[in-house]
Amino acid sequence: MQHFTRLRGFQDWIGPSAEALSLVEKAFVEIAAGHGFREIRIPNVERVELYARSSGETSDIVEKQMYVFHDHDEAETTLALRPEGTPGVVRAYVEAGLDRSDPEQRLYYSGAMFRRERPQKGRYRQFYQFGVEVFGRADAACDAEVLLMIDELQRALGVEFRFEINSIGDAQCRPQFRQAVYDFGKAHYEQLCADCKNRLERNPLRLLDCKNDVALLEHAPKSADYLCDPCKTHFNQVKTLLDAGGVKYVENPRLVRGLDYYTRTTFEVIASGLGSQSTVVAGGRYDGLIEALGGAAVPGIGFGCGLERMALALEAAGKLLIEKTDAAIIAMGDAAAAKAISIARAMRESGLSVEMFSPERKLKALLSRANKIGARFAVIIGENEIAKGVVVLRDLQNSTQREVAEGEISSAISVMG
């Protein structure tokens, strides 16, 4: 019989590993709600042109990484599994008419993204991402706020990240910076890698985020030297506000991000202990993107967080604490099983997590199973306990037990736990 296995670059997340992703996602949702964000859910599939227009034809996403196919029911439309969240959110925002009727919006999303990359730990072909987008705000305070949200996450999770920030200018000053990088690339053409040689004419700024020519590009032009006065003022305000909020950061002049739509503020958040896949959050400002996708001239800013990488960062820092089952209910016999159902319901209503075990197995085996799932307590019910109106509450951590009245189980666990 054929045994099916998962495709290369795709992962199964079972039990604790899936719960680790949910732990990060839940923390982000709570932070987003605290900042007035509302949820948006977008399709996993979009027209391929959406990403070519937004991410840029020279981006790695468009050139190498998209899963593309033809939909014969849609007049041979070329479709792509979404490789990132921002373009789809912008498309939905414009299609709903919010760019004109109510442009200032705060939206968050979470879900699967797909990129055909070379798989390794922390980089998968299907990965999960949490992201936020703020539309209708061009001010530096908004830039600082989205970075503060990430700082709140690291505080909530008890980890420490390195914040790297930069400004790549806007339509007024970036052309001069672009030209300077182009001239640098031409002057050092023979030293460039094959990808950089290919991109030089189409998008010279992509040279700066090349992972192969790092030593050479240390001497490349820096965006800070070409910023116009409004961009300088904006970036200085962002830094002042981050200082006021207690967010530690470093300026990285090579940080341009790999997507064409970014303007002014860009940032990456780096975790230690992850090797080459150390960027856990990345984003920036994209003031021209909404207009480029057919909407009004509305500014925007956002970020995406890789849930798998964030979970790996927590694990590397020894902070990955997955909630375990509070109690296992062990019913010895059919009569006890009926009683266990009502007891389990009452315990869950009091806020405890409870797993009921089969009444057909021996007590020793069931206690072993309770320990295996990490339950703190076992609630044991048999004929004698039913007759007395009690249960045996066993503390699995300390190997002690005592009889407790049926109505006092939750309070006893609270005291003993």
Summarize the topology.
Layout: H1 16-34, E1 38-39, E2 45-47, H2 48-54, H3 60-65, E3 68-71, E4 77-81, H4 86-95, H5 98-101, E5 105-114, E6 126-135, H6 140-157, E7 162-167, H7 174-187, H8 194-199, H9 214-217, H10 229-244, E8 250-251, E9 263-270, E10 279-285, H11 289-292, E11 300-306, H12 307-316, E12 327-331, H13 334-349, E13 354-356, H14 363-372, E14 377-381, H15 383-388, E15 390-395, E16 400-405, H16 409-416
Parallel strand pairs: 1-5, 7-8, 12-13, 12-14
Antiparallel strand pairs: 2-4, 3-4, 5-6, 6-11, 7-9, 9-10, 10-11, 14-15, 15-16
Short précis:
Helix content is 38%, strand content 21%.
- How many angstroms separate the termini? 49 Å
Unreliable stretches covering 5 or more consecutive residues: none
- Widest β-sheet, arrangement of strands: 1-5-6-11-10-9-7-8
Structural class by secondary-structure content: alpha+beta
The count of β-strands is 16
How would you describe this protein?
This protein has 16 helices and 16 strands. An eight-stranded mixed sheet has the order 1-5-6-11-10-9-7-8. A five-stranded mixed sheet has the order 13-12-14-15-16, sandwiched between helices. A three-stranded antiparallel sheet has the order 2-4-3. The protein folds into two domains: 16-173 and 227-316, BirA Bifunctional Protein, domain 2; 327-416, Rossmann fold (3-Layer(aba) Sandwich), CATH 3.40.50. With 417 residues, the protein is of the alpha+beta class. 38% of the residues lie in helices and 21% in strands. Helix 1 runs antiparallel to helix 6 (140-157), helix 1 (16-34) packs across helix 12 (307-316) and helix 6 (140-157) packs parallel to helix 10.
